[in-house]
Design brief:
Blueprint: E1 9-12, H1 16-27, E2 32-36, H2 39-45, E3 51-54, H3 60-65, E4 73-76, H4 82-94, E5 99-103, H5 107-116, E6 120-122, H6 124-138, E7 142-147, E8 150-156, H7 166-169, H8 171-175, E9 177-184, E10 187-190, E11 202-208, H9 209-219
Parallel strand pairs: 1-2, 1-4, 2-3, 4-5, 5-6
Antiparallel strand pairs: 7-8, 8-11, 9-10, 9-11
Bound molecules: adenosine-5'-diphosphate (ADP).
Length: about 220
């Protein structure tokens, strides 16, 4: 398989985060080149990714050999070894990879990656912790903050909610939330002004985070 085109993604570091990310990309049809300096980590994914390579990604020669400069998107999923994360990331930026995604383990690590010029810094533990906090607060099934301050949640419609069309419920005026979609009998459909809730429906609610949370509490 030829790999290294603009449509492929290289994932450096095949720990828990990198592995989950790489497998999810594969599951959705993206070619993935996985790199890790731990032979066992690489061996474990052999055959599940488009390509796997065992090697130390801090070595400029490896980055060159693998043609990582030709990838549009590279993910640095090395966390605990902050030095390695920084060395790899700076090499990738130096060879001109346009989109570098890097995982940070803490605030200081995130700041350095940011200062290096990484376009996408992700903090899986911190982000997930915040997300779960919102889920716990509102007994929500799912909570995604699109960016700080704006959220989308999945809620079950309580029994007894009046069966008038959305247009008449006035959720936006009264509660400051919008309904994006409704899941009924296992299928999501986009909501429209004529949509009527039924008991057992799941709805996708979006809006400013505090509005969405307040609405979720009301619906609980
Ligand atoms: P997680 O918490 O997602 O498991 P870790 O930071 O513990 O993440 O794992 C990172 C992975 O990156 C490990 O599999 C490790 O072997 C790999 N790794 C660390 N340093 C390098 C390096 N210089 N080159 C390639 N892979 C590396």
């Amino acid at each position: 398989t030829s790999i290294g085109s603009a449509t492929s993604v290289a994932v450096i570091g095949l720990g828990r985060f990198g592995t989950a990310l790489a497998l999810e990309l594969m599951a959705h049809g993206t070619e993935v080149l996985g790199i890790d300096d731990d032979a066992d980590a690489v061996q474990g994914l052999n055959g599940q990714l488009t390509g796997v390579v065992a090697g130390d990604a801090t070595r400029p020669e490896l980055i060159e050999q693998l043609g990582l400069a030709d990838f549009d998107r590279v993910v640095v999923a090395i966390g605990s070894d902050v030095t390695a994360s920084i060395l790899v990331t700076s090499q990738l930026l130096r060879v001109g990879v346009p989109q570098v995604w890097a995982k940070a383990v803490d605030e200081r690590h995130a700041l350095i990656l940011d200062q290096l010029g990484v376009s996408h810094v992700v903090r899986p533990e911190a982000d997930m912790g915040r997300r779960v906090a919102h889920m716990v607060r509102g007994a929500l099934e799912d909570f995604i903050e699109i960016e700080p301050g704006y959220a989308a949640v999945r809620l079950e419609v309580p029994a007894g909610l009046s069966a008038v069309p959305l247009r008449e419920l006035g959720l936006q005026a009264k509660h400051g939330v919008g309904i994006g979609a409704v899941k009924r009998d296992g299928a999501w459909v986009l909501a429209n002004p004529e949509t009527r809730f039924e008991a057992g429906d799941t709805v996708l609610v979006h809006g400013l985070t505090p509005k969405v949370e307040a609405f979720a509490v009301l619906m609980a």
